[in-house]
Design brief:
With about 270 residues, the chain is of the alpha/beta class. It has a five-stranded parallel β-sheet with strand order 2-1-3-4-5, with helices on both faces. About 40% of the residues are buried.
């Protein structure tokens, strides 16, 4: 029996070119409201994945995201935000996209159709059984992702998938298949819309919950964020001031001396306990 892709089913809306701008926006928003509910249903699987990732990362494991097109770009985006947000090295969460960095801005012809390339790229990064490989594909059929997950799994590496079609090929290659069924897209087949939004939400959930479990957040604050601009220096200064009861200038000097909120606070407590 042929695999039916909900992501390719006709939109629930038609004659889009005849609609007013307000109607278009309202209809897109109506569809977008379905995404969070679809993600909510996937929480048990997301939880199962996170609880398996954390102990692996505590032993030195990494997360690899693999995808093509929008899915690949979202994986690279989530990976690229881990160092500035949580102060982790860029080698711990790695985004791979079919076609390489060129594909972040421009389509690379046939890159996603190569069944072997994803695994080759994982091997170039020295992937091992402490790592986790998460394949992202709205359709659930992308050969670049399917091949990588299949090979990773045969090598005893934890695999997961994020797709918008039930019982998809990538789900069959994953130890933890995450299925987020958002239904047909507003523009038929345009999976950068609801599917992409849902993927971004799930990636946020995975990486943020993992980082919290690894101790990279205190209270509700990004105490390990990189101080890459004045806004973040100001935010960090106010965190230090609040935590230690210092005035703004004292807190700022301490923060800039040590390079992160956590290090500044720890150093202050150490100096006071001597």
């Amino acid at each position: 029996m042929a695999f039916v892709k909900i992501t390719e089913q006709p939109s629930l809306y038609d004659h889009l070119e005849e609609k007013s701008v307000r109607e278009i926006l309202q209809d897109i928003n109506t569809e977008d409201q379905k995404v969070a509910l679809a993600v909510q249903k996937a929480i048990p699987k997301i939880e199962k994945l996170v609880t398996q990732i954390v102990p692996r990362m505590k032993q030195g494991g990494r997360i690899f995201y693999l995808g093509a097109g929008t899915s690949g770009r979202l994986g690279v985006l989530d990976a690229s935000e881990i160092p500035p947000t949580f102060g982790m090295p860029p080698t711990l969460v790695i985004g791979l996209i079919a076609g390489g960095d060129t594909a972040l801005r421009n389509p690379v012809e046939n890159a996603e159709d190569n069944m072997n390339r994803g695994w080759e790229e994982l091997q170039e990064h020295g992937v091992n059984n402490l790592d986790t490989v998460i394949g992202i594909a709205a359709s659930g059929t992308t050969p670049y992702v399917v091949g990588a997950l299949r090979a990773a799994r045969t090598h005893g590496i934890l695999t997961a998938s994020i797709s918008s079609n039930p019982d998809s090929p990538i789900a069959h290659e994953a130890d933890v298949p995450i299925e987020m069924i958002v239904g047909p897209e507003f523009v038929t087949g345009s999976s950068r819309m609801k599917s992409g939004t849902g993927q971004k939400m799930i990636l946020n959930m995975i990486s943020t919950s993992v980082m919290i479990q690894l101790g990279r957040v205190k209270g509700n604050r990004m105490v390990n964020m990189q101080l890459t601009n004045q806004k973040l220096v100001d935010r960090g200064t106010r965190m230090v001031a609040d935590e230690l009861g210092l005035d703004y200038e004292q807190a700022k000097r301490l923060l800039l001396l040590h390079g992160s909120v956590k290090k500044a606070v720890d150093a202050w407590h150490t100096s006071q306990n001597k």
